[in-house]
Amino acid sequence: MNFREEIRAFFASRRVQDEVAAIRALPPEAETGRLAVYSWLGERGWLAPHWPERYGGLGLGVAEAAALTEEMLYAGVPDDLHTLSIGIVGTFLLHSGTEAQKQEHLPALARGDRMATVLFTEPSCGSDLAALRTEARPDGAGWRLHGTKIYNQKSQFAEMALCAARTRDSGVGMDGITLFLVPLDSAGVHVSTVASMGNDRFTQVVIDGLLLTEDAVVGAVHDGWTLMNSLLLLERTGIDFHAKARVLLDTVLDRARATGRLSPELAELDARLAAAHALAWQQVHNLAADRPSPGGSAMAKWYASEHFRPILRAAAEVDGLDSVLTSWDGGAPAHGSVESAYRTGPSLRLASGTSEVMLYLIATGELGLL
Amino acid sequence: MLTDLFDDDTTPLLRRLGERPRGGGAPQDEETRRQVLAALADSEQSPAEVLRAAELMGAALYQSPFLDTVAAAELFPLSPGRTVALALRENGTDNPATPAPFVLRDGRVTAVRRFVAFASDVDDLLVVGGTTAALVPVEQPGVRTRRQDDVGRGDLHTVELQDAVAQVRDVTADYPAVLARARLRHAAYLVGAAQAAIRLTADHLRERKVFGQPLAKSTALAYRLAALHAEAEAVRALVGTEPSPRTGAQAVLLAGAVARQSAEEAVHLHGARGMTEHSDAQLFYRRAAVDAQWYGTATALRAELLAALSA
User: Fold this and answer.
1) CATH-assigned architecture of domain B2-170
2) In chain B, which residue ranges form alpha helices assigned H by DSSP?
3) How far is A27 from chain B (nearest CA, A)?
4) How much is the pTM?
5) N or C: at which end does chain B have fewer Cβ atoms within 10 angstroms?
6) Contact B217 A370 (CB under 8 A)
7) Tens of pLDDT along A344-357?
8) In B, what residues contact A, Cβ < 8 A?
């Protein structure tokens, strides 16, 4: 069996399917956190198959990592905590962490024993991270942090987070940002949740005088902006966004077949997701060849995530008012998954860089505009 | 190198080739067009290279029987240098996936085919009807061609075949795959055209100043072009995947849409000048009307894909 067949067999196994059934049976607004399936994947080295073996991976390529994410989502296992922990924080550590940081954190992240999230956005800055206000002031041999981070997710389930803070105010927003590893369970860090329309809540993390040593700095001091721009790119392939859209479309197609409501619009959406899939995999192959494409990855993310809305509109045509019934209602088609996708939907065009940020990257990087 | 034919200098010239005066007559630059075709035909190419060439041809809006000949060679062995035009439609609304049958008597073909490109230039016509294909030499008494006059100022013909001599074979087994690859090549051509129209327009936005600054500074305009560019790239990625009847129909459906929309935006964003003969924007616009539905209208392609989804 090749890697994809192996992970497919794993996700089709009884215990994983039981866990997926339990997730599907959750009431609306119930949020999943640390799933047992993450630990089972971690035991095999499959949470981060592309990391070197000494850091808990299998030494495979980014294509295998993408296949894992894809199969996870196709199987109905939420990937958000996995993406944050491995795809973003793990990637930052792998590329820019010190050897001590790598040894301390990567094996634990790869096993799923430790989870990490991302603290970038703030009440007054989202897409414009150069405007962030969280401060880190030199204090003895280390740094003391003050600030509020919001609209991050899953921090209530994680031990640590990668936090962007201002270490120098030079008048140029992009200069003087530094990335820190913040232990979320320390005194001086307060994690609370903010209810969202979607099942997953946002988290607000207030950092109130947390003292960190130099060992907590990831990458060079003041150079966080460069790091964020170059490394977020490595996670932005569109693979996850496509898989989420595909799962939803397949649900809608099943409903349409069952009710005799297949339509030409659905056939076109199916074609468009085939294109989204091809474009996402092109980014993975670019990464595998060590040729990441900022414009390409922006296009892949934008194109895949833009399809959530038309699929949801088509779902409303297929099931009519039944499509609005929640998982709490026994009469809901597809266990209320269409209703829950409708509430989650807007996040896809906002998360990991908004649609407008993607269009900006395409317009400037690919077409020389703006 | 094949790609040398379509460099930045020659591409704008190629876009203007082959435009015929209304009422017929050979275009003045017929010889250049033939030379490009000969160079294309002479080069040995892998399927991926043909796709790349198709994109470049699209960017140059280069009209020739080249892609039709490539498709025909997959059904009939062709002697080197022979060119073929596909004759798949009786009516403008026909879907080439289900071509109207023709009459076959004693191995001779009687049929009407319209929208046959370069019928008067090529050596053979590949007429497909039902599940039968016929390779019909043009130079014979049973073949009559009449040029049609279309918005793309191309080289479309009505062809009447009356007991025309032909090689005939059943293509039940291979036509779907041949059509799928032809559609993917045409989709590559359309993506090339779409992206060239987008780049032409981006160039214009950088040059044209309005209210004291370049139009390129306008987010509203830049984002529209960026979205079209991403649409085109997505189709381009799809074109590069494993050919199948489904992929072929999907790619040519999406490519037709993005080629047409890019051409519409090109004319609009060039302003009134975009509607004049001076501007290539109108060339993209004219060609898109023809090329976008060359392998089926969007309605026909969606219906075809819907039937596959239902199966």
Assistant:
1) Beta Barrel (2.40)
2) 10-14, 30-42, 47-59, 66-72, 175-207, 219-239, 245-269, 281-291, 298-310
3) 32
4) 0.95
5) C
6) yes
7) 999 999 999 999 99
8) 198-199, 202, 205-206, 216-217, 219, 221-223, 225-227, 229-231, 233-235, 237-238, 240-241, 246-247, 249-251, 253-254, 298-299, 302-303, 305-306, 308-310
